[in-house]
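Forwarding the complex inputs:
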Amino acid sequence: METVIQTAQLTKSFKGTNVIKPFHFSLFKGEICALIGQNGAGKSTIFKMLSGQLIPTSGEIRLFGKIEQDKEDARRRMGFLIETPAFFPDFTAEQNLKYYVLQRGIVEKNRIAEVLAIVGLANEKRKRFKEYSMGMKQRLGLALCLLSSPDCLVLDEPINGLDAEGIREIRNLLIRLNEEKQITIFISSHILTELHLLATRFVFLKDGAVVEDISKEALQEKSRKQLIVTVDDAAKAVRLLEQNYPAISYKVLPDQVITIDGHIEDGGEINRLFTMNGVTVMEFRAEARNLEEYFLELVGGAAI
Amino acid sequence: MINYLKSEQYRMLRKKSLHLTSLVCLLLISAAGAVLAYFGKTDPTFPYATSNFYYSNVLGGAGLIILVAFIVNFSLTGKDTTVLKNTISFGIKRKTVYWSKLILTFIYFLVLCIIGLSLLIGIGETFLASESGSISNLLAAVANMVPIILSAFLLIHTLKLLNMGDVYILVILLGIYGFAGNLLWVVAKKFPFFKKLYEYAPDTLMGRNLMGFMDKTAQIGYPYFLTGGLLAAAAIVIGIIQFSKKPID
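Prediction (whole assembly, two chains):
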């Protein structure tokens, strides 16, 4: 599989403080990878090193397999939106994009109209950037990312300032771009539920170091936490559990609901145990921790 | 680089404030000439309605010319540099950014200076009393000014791209182009070696150039090119090295 981004021993120090510890990472074509970490964990620093805004203290970055001089050319296949979108405040959206069309040597005449339509700004193209709301600015930032038809998008907080509908639109857009055009996406956001819906891979960062790099499937598997069972006779069910699993930990909730910690792999057996012994099972499911709970457990504490 | 130049030109042509400032500069040159010509016509004893006096005001106003250089430079290296991250992340080299902005702003400044100089000579020779040889005397003095002003332009460009605050830049300009000579003169009283450096300080040279023009003995001299060349080279070297590793936020 083609490697889009590859880093080796990548570090960054500011005034002697190691902000990014040796960062080894590979992003493969077609992935949607979420970079998750608390404020100050180093997400934006990594993105800025990838975009060339910051010069790494040491280590190597390969973009589409290219290093050094060729890496600059490889950046032309990428779209970066890092922190707040920056445009000329007194230019309209159309003029701002025209500036970049000239700069990037884009020859398609309708490209500006196309990308503005994609991000939902077709009717706001004659408004000055300084008159835009935060969400509109964010959309224009995405339009700029898409302007040169990139193969990879690197997006730092792209849904910042968007309302619920805007977030859903951008999520659907990113999924569509990934599925239809195989655009690889490397993304961060403080809205973890969104990342959970979008990403296929999760990289957790703490104090500038990767603490876990996990696929969506593995994450779902690992974050399954408890069995929730609704039965007709909770007392009998509990007795059966204690007899067969002496060390089991459970809670009996109102309405004959029992929660069992762990024992996910024993789910089928427990279900059979109940039915064989005349306990009717109305509901039987494994409940997963959400991404936020998993993250907090992993990095141990404060929210993002 | 051509694409980047095109985009910056697109931006520059839409800078209304820049064109307005240029217009004001040209109007001020015209107004000064008009005032001198008016008083020359209404008061026969008025001694300043001469092209030499008119020209000397421009030659003595190097500080103002440097201020115009600052404003022109500001058009592409001012607050707009926040959008640089979009350019750098697209793989456009920092050297391309440095040279493209410099080339465009300098061409604009050069054209403005040529128009200003033509206007100056046109008004001076048409509406004011002129002596023979005044134009060649003026052109020699202007030629001496060019390397010094160019070095100031390059220094402003470098400092703006390095994101230095405007006040700091003006203080540095004032120090180098306004007071360096005086400072070296004071130091030279204790350390005679500095006497030689004083001779080559920008403000010393500009003062000498003005005197040469007033005495009608202005000649193109190498010290102007030496000082201007060294300052310009220093500004470029500092600019290229520092800008190549500067974080773009």
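Chain A has eleven helices and 13 strands.
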